Amino acid sequence: MKVFKFGGTSVGSIENIANVKNIINDGQKKIVVLSAMSGTTNQLVDIANNIKENALNQAVDKVNKLHDVYFETIDKLIVNGALNADVKTYVSGVFNLLLESTYKPFSEVLENNIVAQGELLSTFMVNAYLNQEGIRSALLPALNFMRIDKAKEPDMAYIKANFKKVFDAANESEIYITQGFICLDDNDDVSNLQRGGSDYTATIIGAAIKAEEVQIWTDIDGMHNNDPRHVENTKPISNLSFDEAAELAYFGAKILHPQTVTPVREDCIPVRLKNTMDPEAYGTLISDETSENGVKAIAAKDAITAIKIKSGRMLQAHGFLRKVFEIFEVYETSIDMITTSEVAVSLTIDDDKNLDKILAELETFSSVEVDKNQSIVCLVGHSIVNHQETYKLFQILQDVKIRMISYGGSRNNISLLINSKDKINTLQKLNDYLFELVTL
Ligand code: ASP
Ligand code: MG
Asked: Would the CB of 245 count as within 6 Å of ligand 1?
């Protein structure tokens, strides 16, 4: 069986929902994971923030506005009287719950419950729509099988066992619809897989049922070789290996949740990225096949903090790095890039929640410099570190101030740290010279 996931834009309008129907209605039984309609999760996050800040009028206002948008959509989408009434009953229940939330004291659990409603709404509506269109579809409630453990990792044993139970209990159908993003935590409270998490839901389910393939349907024709929001003339990449896709997703390619390929790479379950608005386009196939050498794609990750740690005692001393790393471990902060010299070590983090505490500890045995607003530019491709064109990088970027460089950590990745203000220029230059074959 295949798992299909549709993102927020794909379920964000009546026309796109009709496209989704055409795509999934191919006579093959499948699991369909849906995001919330585009914009909804942002609205729900804002509502939760208003409650947190005690701006209750604003929260109520937003709930009411969203309510009206949903009721308008339902009237256009579900024209069958009985189904229309059924959906409105469910959706009213959701909006009552949101209004009640504005009277409750703020907590993380309350926030997670609010934010979870987007996927509950979209799946209920789309399921009813499919039934109206004569397609046999059933809902599989994600909160009955999707769970993360204490370390916030998917609890695969639980998910496998409970997915099977939920699936077996559902009515025999062609299409099995479930919510992306939402899950339970180890206390059985409602939680989520972080923003963009529906991709992750799809591959977790894919791994749990050993799916034939996972298809991620978005509003772009696959993973592009550079960031299409900032760079001109980007192109979709037809094939990526799991390693390449994992590096790109982690280092900033916004199309995929950073963890998307993790659950499926061990079983080599292919992940195909497709465009709901242009289903004929090939998209991107992520699989265990490696292809030609050379730079295949470039991505950038912002809001990086660089820390330079200098110590006289580092010179010829062993155990220095362990001491440094232990501090980051204590504060559960992961390090992305690292470079060393004989007297200093520079590293980067993207989560600076505990930065002050980390710095205080580092300063007990070293001098520390911090640079915020940095970006990691990551070049990915098969064996790029050995490729004969790679040396050109320094020529191409001779005007850009490179703060750190990581080369050789894996054969498939070269990462550069630059000031975020130089990012767009750097991405465009790399694009022009590496992909457009502008000669130096
Ligand atoms: N609705 C969630 C979000 O906006 C999850 C997703 O779309 O993948 O982040
Ligand atoms: Mg997404």
From this structure: no
Average pLDDT of the chain? 94
Mean pLDDT of 261-275: 97
For residue 202, which ligand has an atom nearest its CA? Answer: 1
Nearest-atom number in ligand 1 for the CA of 119 is 1
Q: For ligand 1, is residue 180 a contact (CB within 6 Å)?
A: yes
- State the distance from the centre of ligand 2 to the C-alpha of 78, rounded, in angstroms: 26
Which of helix, strand or coil describes residue 355? helix
CA 196 to centroid of ligand 1, rounded, Å = 4
Q: Which of 207-216, 288-297, 358-367 has the lowest average pLDDT?
A: 288-297
Pick the range with the lowest mean pLDDT from 124-133, 171-180, 430-439: 430-439
Which residue's CA is minimally distant from atom 5 of ligand 1?
Answer: 196
Q: What is the pLDDT of residue 439?
A: 64
The sheet with strand 213-218 has its strands ordered as 137-140, 175-179, 30-34, 2-6, 213-218, 271-275, 284-287, 239-241
Cα-based angle 424, 271, 34 (whole degrees, multiple of 5): 85
pLDDT digits (tens, 9 = 90+) for 3-12: 999 999 999 9
* Token couple for 168: 């077996």
How far, CA to CA in Å, does 67 sit from each of 2, 74, 167, 176? 34, 11, 31, 26
Give Cβ neighbours of residue 28 (< 8 Å, ≥ 6 apart): 1, 2, 174
DSSP element (H, E) containing 139:
strand 137-140
